[in-house]
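Progress note, sequence design subtask.
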């Protein structure tokens, strides 16, 4: 088997033979993601309990903030490409990142709240596209491109380990010491991330900065429009997925906090509503290799490759199941508290959906796009999260205005239409591919 960057290497439990700079990226990214998710896991209830926002308004603020974090990567990528380079962009944007965390925890007024969220979105989003790119450049310059697939696997493991530990741990800190202390820990984490990057600077490659933008020909622009139209259906459906999935950081938390018995029977201990957000990265860590093995076995049994679009259809079906479960549970929760295990089950389903939709969708978009458009398509893919969360912020206004069963039921119906849309898009792409193959055969 051959990876995208050369012959596949045998995967080991620990990174062996990787450049020294890899470890600086690994630990810096782990600390940065722990910083971000540790803050976000507390944010929804912080807005309600400290600032006195209504739950629907708090949910809207959280989703608008998340949306902004997927808009600012465009700024970070542009500045890195044309002005500062990736390393200096990361270092400089750690400064507003740290300030945002400090302001959020210390100055508890609405003005400073929105200043803090602006700085956090600016810092987090501007760093986001540059760490992975810097790592990729390092491997290519050192002639270790064949190890990049393995490096990215560990890189994404760092993201999920950091977010899991912070999502489960910081609510415990908050419960014991209050929001002020809990929200300052992310500031220390991003400070540690910045320090690690600075210590590793001599291991990162020199960068070329593009001082001018090369104009594209009319033919190039036409071809780019055709590619985006071809992927348009998938991109819209990705936005719908993130609209419902990112409710887990807002309305799902409120639902758990008010309507669920948070005792994990029969283990005899309880979790907080905020800690339920730590289930997503934990499930990703555990089930990413399991799902990869299941795909391999299914392909071996069927004797053919499972298409990315088919995996995405399965992902949307799992998403519908998660929301339908919450809708049913929501009806019963109107009269009595329900077990948190139902939320665990829904999180499990929608996270498996994420592995089938988001990860596979990004891979599909990357493969379909020509070399000249791969960065643009990746940026548009991130913008779909922005679009989904922006719509989610508007939809959050319904929370508390209708019953929980109705609220989650509407989302289940939207997800069902998205699943049907995914089937239609998959068939359309297959027909287009068949026509292109036939045209190639005729011209040969």
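Output:
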């Amino acid at each position: 088997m051959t990876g995208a960057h050369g012959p596949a290497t045998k995967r080991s439990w620990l990174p062996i033979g990787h450049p020294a700079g890899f470890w600086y990226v690994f630990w810096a990214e782990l600390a940065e993601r722990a910083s971000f998710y540790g803050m976000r896991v507390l944010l929804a209830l912080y807005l309600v309990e400290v600032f006195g926002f209504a739950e629907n308004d708090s949910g809207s603020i959280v989703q608008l903030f998340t949306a902004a974090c997927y808009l600012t990567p465009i700024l970070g990528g542009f500045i890195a490409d044309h002005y500062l380079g990736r390393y200096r962009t990361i270092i400089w944007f750690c400064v507003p990142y740290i300030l945002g965390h400090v302001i959020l925890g210390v100055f508890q007024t609405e003005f400073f709240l929105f200043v803090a969220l602006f700085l956090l979105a600016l810092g987090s989003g501007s760093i986001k596209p540059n760490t992975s790119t810097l790592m990729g450049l390092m491997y290519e310059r050192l002639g270790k491109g064949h190890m990049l697939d393995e490096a990215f696997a560990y890189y994404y493991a760092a993201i999920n380990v950091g977010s899991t530990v912070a999502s489960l741990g910081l609510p415990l800190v908050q419960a014991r010491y209050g929001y002020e202390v809990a929200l300052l820990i992310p500031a220390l984490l991003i400070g540690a991330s910045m320090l690690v990057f600075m210590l590793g600077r001599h291991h990162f490659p020199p960068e070329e900065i593009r001082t001018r933008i090369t104009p594209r020909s009319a033919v190039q622009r036409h071809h780019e429009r055709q590619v985006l139209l071809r992927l348009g259906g998938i991109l819209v459906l990705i936005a719908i997925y993130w609209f419902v999935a990112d409710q887990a950081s807002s309305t799902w938390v409120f639902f758990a906090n008010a309507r669920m018995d948070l005792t994990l029977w029969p283990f005899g201990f309880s979790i907080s509503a905020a800690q339920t957000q730590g289930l997503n990265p934990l499930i990703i860590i555990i089930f990413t290799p399991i799902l990869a093995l299941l795909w391999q076995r299914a392909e071996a049994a069927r004797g053919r490759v499972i298409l990315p679009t088919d995996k995405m259809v399965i992902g949307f079906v799992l998403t519908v199941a998660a929301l339908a479960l919450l809708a049913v549970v929501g009806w019963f929760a109107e009269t009595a508290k329900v077990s948190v295990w139902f939320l665990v089950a829904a999180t499990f389903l929608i996270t498996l959906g994420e592995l089938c939709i988001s990860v596979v969708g990004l891979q599909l978009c990357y493969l379909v796009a020509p070399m000249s458009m791969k960065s643009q398509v990746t940026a548009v893919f991130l913008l779909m999260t922005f679009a989904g969360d922006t719509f989610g912020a508007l939809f959050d206004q319904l929370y508390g205005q209708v019953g929980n069963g109705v609220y989650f039921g509407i989302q289940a119906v939207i997800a069902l239409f998205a699943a049907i849309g995914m089937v239609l898009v998959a068939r359309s792409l297959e027909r287009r591919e068949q026509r292109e193959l036939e045209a190639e055969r005729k011209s040969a």
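Residues 1-11 have pLDDT under 50 and may be disordered. Work on this subtask will continue into the next period as scheduled.
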